[in-house]
Amino acid sequence: xxxxxxxxxxxxxxxxxxxxxxxxxxxxxxxxxxxxxxxxxxxxxxxxxxxxxxxxxxxxxxxxxxxxxxxxxxxxxxxxxxxxxxxxxxxxxxxxxxxxxxxxxxxxxxxxxxxxxxxxxxxxxxxxxxxxxxxxxxxxxxxxxxxxxxxxxxxxxxxxxxxxxxxxxxxxxxxxxxxxxxxxxxxxxxxxxxxxxxxxxxxxxxxxxxxxxxxxxxxxx
Length: 221
Prior knowledge:
It is a single chain. The chain is an all-beta fold. The chain is 0% helix and 66% strand. It has one domain (13-220): Beta Barrel (Porin), CATH 2.40.160.40. It is built from no helices and 13 strands. 11% of the residues are buried.
């Protein structure tokens, strides 16, 4: 059945505020503040979204400095069922960086997320691949695969779930360096507002980071 585009139809819109603070293993740190706006397209499974990040870098020596990061445009398509959900997302990160807070390259990013559901829990695995496609002089090159497993997403009260996290990254631009982290997350859904709190800690000689707390608040309207 083809939908008549001349008829009024419901459009899902969402606005997100996201923040994280990342302490690196070399003693430096960085904070990311990001605003996101998304809306559905021809149906509620297809979504386009813009991400506008603002960074503050805390070097080992010298004063902190801040600026706009790489603005991203994303398209995703999501399919849900009783036992299994999955989605694909593609992003382009543009060279909009100011004050040298992050690399001023152009990147493409691909995501494939799967969610296996059972009574009282779920396992979520996120595949991510990031690749620089245009790297101007002085910018750094990015090429990595990132995998993240959340399990068991157990409901401790109606609307609130918790999960353990295993996160790792393989850096293709450094001959396959493997960088792991572990942690946990809590997610709450309150009517049209969703809130998640996450913290992860790197471990081993090539830890992904020292620690990284995150907060995400999304409202639908």
